[in-house]
Amino acid sequence: MTRPIGGLRLAAALCIAALAGAPCLAGDVVLVEDASASAEIGTLVSGRDGATGLDFKDRAITGPAGRAIEVGDVHGGDTNRLLVFQKERAVAIEYPEWKVTDVEVRVKLSTEFGIPVCVWLVPGTTTPAFNRSVIAAAVMGTVWRDENAGLKLGTIRFGEIAKTDTSATPYVNFKCTKVGCREAENLRKAVGFTPAMVNIYFVDMVDYGAGMSRGNAVWCGDDTIVLGSMTTGTLLAHEFGHAAMLGHVDGMSCFDETNVMHSSSDTRAYLTEGQTFRMHADPASVISGEPYELRPGLPLVSCGDLPSAGCPELHKRIWTDCVTSVDCVCAP
Ligand SMILES: [Zn+2]
User: Taking the CB of residue 266, how many other CB atoms lie within 10 A of it?
Assistant: First the structure.
């Protein structure tokens, strides 16, 4: 339920709260509208600390939905930014004018984005693909929901291919070693392609440059993902991460194989808020860019994996998954 809080009404509420013995709000506050009523709100705040005079970046502060979130005494600094995350909501990016005096920053959240996909069960595959394609898509949606990615699975459309059509036979074992490869173009022509969404092709084996395997999958660019017959839904979430401009996290100090973007893992599960930010904000991501273009008119930022002024660090977390020592060491 939405509960917008007006400035005057807020001040009156503070007095009542104080009389009742509850703590008063102090410092700068964030007022979040259209939040989900059932989940905590997480913010990453950047500005200058009013007490120390030092700049800070991406301080993680959480609060319950429906109440103002106190973010401390924030002044204008080199980076003035407010990022808001919540389950079932898209990431919000604001650039507040923090001042010496206290300010209220209003942020309106959007409902999480529905992502339709088109699934192609390539004729000639030896393993029945319908069930695993549905399961894979559902698992990807579950990862998004659990990790507050601001995305949910939309309509699954199945491309129509005649079972007797042999034109796709050469692609049952699919080789594509780079984004934009000719073989992906040939696959789309032979099997079919639905514009304006990511197309997912289920085949027997995939070779992305390390040899054919049923457990391989590849993001080919141009809205094309190809999955081998022994792949899992978390690998589909991984390939979609590439489509949303995420790179591999192998060997990075704050990541291990439990992250969705590890290149070789059976335990992918987690996304950081730094990764979620990039998926939404990067202009080349399928979310903000083609084909979905779900954030028209909203701020876009191209980050890459390395620290940059315009972005939280890739490993930045608000909610620590904390199943491994690596994750806990890098907790905010
Ligand atoms: Zn990968």
Answer: 9
